[in-house]
Each structure stands twice: as C-alpha cells, then as structure tokens.
TrEMBL record:
It comes from Mangrovibacter phragmitis. Keywords: DNA-binding, Transcription, Transcription regulation. The keyword Transcription regulation applies. GO terms for molecular function: DNA binding; DNA-binding transcription factor activity. It comes from the Bacteria. The keyword Acyltransferase does not apply. One of its GO terms (biological process) is negative regulation of DNA-templated transcription. Residues 81-267 form the IclR-ED domain. Gene3D superfamilies: 3.30.450.40, Winged helix-like DNA-binding domain superfamily/Winged helix DNA-binding domain (1.10.10.10). This is Transcriptional regulator. Residues 18-80 form the HTH iclR-type domain. InterPro entries: GAF-like_dom_sf (IPR029016), HTH_MetabolicPath_Reg (IPR050707), Tscrpt_reg_IclR_C (IPR014757), Tscrpt_reg_IclR_N (IPR005471), WH-like_DNA-bd_sf (IPR036388), WH_DNA-bd_sf (IPR036390).
Length: 271
C-alpha cells in the first residue's frame, strides 16, 4: 500500500470532521524538526499532502499565532507560543513540583547535568533538566525531547523495568530504527537482554557513549506506589570527567534522590 493510500485509509478511521485537525497537528510535528523553517514544497512532500492543502492549513495556524513565515522565502516555522503551551502542560504535572527540589539538590551536590524523564509510548521524554553548576559539558538535550529507549541510559531503565514481553515487542516494531549510533550502541536483542538483566540487578543503567561519543550517562529508576517505573533520573557528563569523579561517587547521590522521589510517590521498598 502506498503512503498516500495509507494516509487515506487512516483518514477514514478518524472521527468525522477531524481530518483538518489531524493534518494540522501533523504539520506542527514536522515543523518542530525545522527550527529555522521548512519550505512549503518540502513540507507538502513530508506530509504527503498537496501544496494548496498545506498552505491553507498553515494560514489557519498562522492566524492563531502558532506558525510564522521563516526568513527564507516560502518557508514556515513554529512560533514561541508553543513554549508557553508546553510550559503550562508541564506545570500541570504534579510530579515536577514533587521532584524539582530533590533534583535541584542533586544538581548542586554533583555539579553535573541532571535529567528527569518519563516514558511515553516507545520513547523517553525529557520533562525536566538542570544544567551543570561546575561541570563544563552542556548537553544538547532539551525539555520535551524524545529519545529512543535502546541507546539511552534512561531509555534502558524503561526497557528493564517494563512488562516482561515488552522488550521483544519493542525490538520487532522498531527494528528498522535500531542502528549503531556509535561503536558502543547495543543493536542485538540478545546483548540487550544481558544488559537489561544487569540493570535490574544493579538498579541502575549506563550509557557508555552509546548515543554520542565522549558523553556518558548514569540513570536510575523512580518507582511509584504500584511498584512501577514511570520516571527515571540521570546524570550526563563527559566520559573523561566520569573517569575523574568515579561512577560510585555519582551513583550514591543519584540513587538517594530517586529513593526520595519514589517515597513521595508512595513507593515502599519493603513490599
């Protein structure tokens, strides 16, 4: 089935009158990958829609203040209105208010980048980040960023503590996207099973330059009252600095922070 036919079939499954809404949201998602703007012709190609339809949808989004013309002629980009909407959505998550004081303490204690994420579908979503206070590395990660589960420390936490059959399903669905980003990236299912068993045993995960050379990450799970892992915390830093500080010296305050947040979420380690 061609992509256009697939889109047509998908449109039929959607509620009546919602086609324009879904297409508008599709354009927003595409534009989010082009901070400097995306030409109308290319946007039309990516969305598999004709130019007149894309132009009409863009005009509607522009009139609402969500899209604006980019410097390059015939290109469009998202506006900062999405920052306001995103911040309001994040502020509505009580977990941020619960976790922030603990994460700030961790950030001051270690001096390194602190990341806090949740799992959404088959991705890890960064919902809170604190820049280093003494460390020199500024990571490219940003609030709202999606990360694959197989090549990030926090992502592997979700794989390790998810449902028993989840890893197999994840691997089958995302096989085309599971690629070596560096020489250390785990791309074989058997190797990942071994990695996840070690993570469950140690209650921590490592990104050993699996996503980006020169950058390492240590992550730990945050448990809730139901013994599930809805969140993860990590510290990111250069590999050279990690060797200088020592993994254990970062893991102890990291686990202490995760335990404090887990307790606030009702987790009882004795159960």
């Amino acid at each position: 089935m061609s992509e256009k036919r697939a889109n047509a079939a998908l449109d039929k499954e959607r509620p009546a009158g919602s086609q324009s809404l879904f297409r508008g949201l599709q354009l927003i998602e595409i534009l989010s990958n082009y901070p400097n703007g995306c030409p109308l012709a290319h946007l039309s190609e990516l969305a598999q829609l004709n130019k007149s339809t894309v132009h009409r949808l863009l005009q509607g989004l522009q009139s609402c203040g969500y899209v604006t013309a980019a410097p390059a002629a015939g290109s469009y980009r998202l506006t900062t209105k999405f920052i306001s909407v995103g911040q309001k959505a994040l502020s509505s998550l009580n977990i941020i208010h619960v976790a922030a004081p603990h994460l700030e303490t961790l950030n001051l204690e270690t001096g390194e980048t602190v990341n806090f994420s949740t799992r959404e579908d088959d991705h890890s979503i960064l919902i809170y980040k604190l820049e280093p206070t003494t460390g020199m590395l500024r990571t490219r990660a940003y609030i709202g960023q999606q990360q694959p589960l197989y090549c990030s420390a926090m992502g592997k936490i979700y794989l390790a503590f998810g449902q028993e059959d989840y890893v197999q399903k994840y691997w089958e669905i995302h096989q085309p996207q599971i690629q070596s980003l560096t020489r250390n990236t785990i791309t074989r299912l058997g190797d990942m099973y071994q990695e996840l068993a070690s993570i469950r045993d140690k209650n921590m995960a490592m990104d050993r330059e699996e996503n980006e050379l020169g950058v390492s990450c240590i992550a730990v799970p945050v448990f809730d009252i139901h013994q599930r892992v809805p969140y993860a915390i990590s510290i990111s830093l250069s590999t050279s600095r990690l060797k200088q500080i020592g993994e254990r010296n970062l893991l102890k305050p990291l686990q202490k922070t995760a335990q404090a947040i887990s307790q606030e979420l009702g987790f009882n380690a004795q159960l």
